[in-house]
Every structure is written in structure tokens, then in C-alpha cells.
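Example record used in the benchmark description.
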Amino acid sequence: MNLLFKDLFGIFKIFEDVYERVRKILIPTTAYSWQTFIYLSVFSWVMSYFATGYIRDIIALCGWLFLIAGTAWYTTDDPLRVPGTFMPVGAVITGFLVSVFAFSNQEDVITSRTVVLWPTISALITAIPEFIEGSDTDSKTRIPKPDARQKIIVLVASCMMISCWLQFYFVLDKWLQEYPSLLAENFGRSTFVITREEQQKIPTNGVVILDRLQPLVEEQIAERPWSEVERWLLEANVRVGQLGREVLNNNLAQYEEKALWRVEPRVVNNKSGYRLDLLSIWTGPTANPRGYFLRKSCQIDPVATTPINTTTNSRTPEEKKAVAEIQCDRLNKLFSGAAPPQQ
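Model output (C-alpha cells):
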């Protein structure tokens, strides 16, 4: 029985210790404390919710300043260092809050600029106390000692290098979003780029151009009089160029790489008729110095048709007219090197 009471008292003692720790954190011993700043930040944000206009922005600004001050104070009372450095974890947290406060916007709280400048701001916050000596009420600036200067320079330079690598990542990510055809390149010999996804065997946008261009060409050629089709093929450069610009504007408008694609035709005369090659040519950066292009071939042949004779008693033979028939390849083919010259 005594053991049971001891266990119960022990459990109550644990709850009592937890309560004391929570009370110590939530209730400040003096008005001038980090808890006061945190409570002021919460109060400011609540009041800004009910305010409007520039008053709301001013109150929200004060809330951010109180939060940064309170967090910095709390995390520097008993600093926990980042392993291998003299940077306090509190400086990392405070640097993140400062970066969010300075570089966030209404649409995104965390932006690429916020992440990029976070390490550098944290390093500068860590270095600031080395330039100040004295107590809170009596302090003055100073020049850090030589050994402290070396640590500051190494820390700030290292964090700036991390920021540069983060910026490099965001730049590459933006390039791949605006120029998705670069994903078809081989980055096996690159020191900076590692592809974790399966490499594209053929540029997607190049395929889209030819797949959207094909029905437009077929519409202008199929079942048209053969004489008109031959004139159309003589002007293929102009006509296909116009259709190609239409396809680019309608399907690649959201990509910056739209200006790096060029659409051209190649007309080849064969025994049965003509072969029309539709080319989407990439003029942007590529590992192949000669570039590459995609091709979709269409065979155009004349087909004789017999017109309907409305006069049943006519003895004149019916005149047969030739119209065009076009058949295009289902798949696109990728070729390395420069596009073939016009014939």
C-alpha cells in the first residue's frame, strides 16, 4: 500500500514539475522579458486583424518586430550552438524570421529570396554581438579580437557560399520551368546538375509543335485540287511558317523557350507525288554544338475522282479530276545535327 501511495505521489510530482516549467515559460518574472515581446507580437497581430488601411500594416509591422526581438532574446539566454560552429541555433531561427519579414509577400510567405538570404542573415546576426561589449544598459561598439575576426569571416563567407548555391538551385529550377526542352539534354558529365528523374528521350515541346501543326497542314491540303496543292507546296515556306507561328503562340505562350523553336518545311519530289517534311528546329543551348531537330513526314499523292454527271443522256466521257491525298507519320523522329538544306 505504501508503495502505491509513493507511486501516486511520484506521478503528481511529475505533473507538478511540468506545470512549474510551463508556468516559468508563460509567465515572466519581470515586465522586461522575452515573454513580454512575444505577447506584444500576438496582441499586435490580433489588433491588425480588426484594423484597415495603413494602420493595419503599421500594427502588423510592430508585431513582426516584437516577434523577432522576443525570439532573439529567448534563444540567446542559453544558446545552443550549431555543431561545428559558434553560431547559435537562435540566430538561425531569428535569421529566418528576419528573412521572412523582409522578403515575403502577400501571395507567398516563403519565397526563393527568403530561403537564399536566410543563411547570410543568420551569420550576420551571429556576428553582431562580437562588435558590442558591455551590459544591456552600458554598452559600446568595439573591434573584435583577431581570433574572433577570423571566425566571423569564415562563418559569413561560408553562409554566403551556401546562399550562392541555393540561388544557383533556384536559377536552374526556373530555367527548367521556362525551357523544359533542356530536360532532354544529357547532364551525365555535369558537375552541378544531377537528374533524379528519367531523362526525356525527345523534347516534349518539339513534339507538341509538330502534333499541333499536322492537322492544320492536312486541312489545307487534303481533298484539294492537285493544281492548288502544287501551288501551295511552292509557297510551303511562307504557309508553313505562318502556321508554325500560330502553333507556337497558341501552345507555347507560357514558356520562354517559345522564341528558340523554329518551324520549317522541306518538300521532296518523288515518283508518286511529294513528300512534305515538317521540321521543328531547336535553336537554343544544347550539348550538341550542331543542335537537333524533330521531323514529321507527310506523303502527298494525287488521287483521281470522277465527278457526278447530272445529264443521264450525255454521251461525252466524264472528265476525271485529281485531288490531293495526304498521309502523315504517326510518330515524330529526333535527329542530331543541323536541319537539311532547302532543295
